Amino acid sequence: MAHTADTEKSDLKKRVADLSDLVWNQGDLSAADTYLSPDFVGHYPGVPDLRGAAAYKRMAAELRSALPDLTHRTITLIEEDDRVVLRAEISGTQRGELMGIPPTGLPVRRTETTLLRFEGDRIAEVWHLADEIGTFDQLGLTPPEGAGPLGQIAHTFKLMARFAVLQAKAGRAAKAAKAQQATRRQDTRQQGPQGRNAA
Questions:
Q1: Which of 10, 25, 11, 19 is nearest to 89 (CA)?
Q2: Phi/psi at 35 (nearest 5 deg)?
Q3: For 19-67, what is each residue's pLDDT tens digit?
Q4: String of b and e for 87-123 (b: at least 16 CB within 10 Å)?
Q5: pLDDT tens-digit profile of 89-140?
Q6: CA angle 29, 38, 35 (to 5 degrees)
Q7: Which residues are paired to 85 by β-bridges?
Q8: Widest CA span of the chain, in angstroms?
Q9: For the purposes of burial, counting CB atoms within 10 Å of the CB of 36, is it exposed (0-12), middle (13-18) or buried (19 or more)?
């Protein structure tokens, strides 16, 4: 479907910018229900195609959980016919699991390019590419530059040990959070209905 009016053209770019801001900066995942078509398909490298707004929202929730302070910055929006290209930068601190990597507490900044195809005023299909190698490098997962074969093997062993420590740390944090919740529930039960009503 070709768009000829300038207002229509700017409306598609505005819809992409609005969805990006709502989902990534404001954490409003329900915006996907408004901006994505019912038969939405998302093509993201390394994972099966996302189908429907619910799958998109799950992916967004996982990324926002991994980077709770995530910010999204639009760099470029280009529109032609029923397609918009978005080049953006995301940044945040890895506080949750990211692509199978336990929390590191390290900052991450990466650029992404997304091609979005519209049907009417809704996004029907997305092709997404991001600088995953740059992300791995920032998290200390790639061997140092110039590392020979033995250096790469040593880096792999260090990485495995680091993952074990990070996973143990994440496990202890989850256990502590669970214990705090149990203590709160027990305190609430001990107060009884009158204690809860008085509060």
A1: 25
A2: -95, -20
A3: 999 999 999 999 999 999 999 999 998 889 999 999 999 999 999 999 9
A4: ebebebbbbbebeebbbbeeebebebebebbbeeeeb
A5: 999 999 988 877 888 899 999 999 999 999 999 999 999 999 888 888 888 7
A6: 45
A7: 78, 115
A8: 69
A9: buried
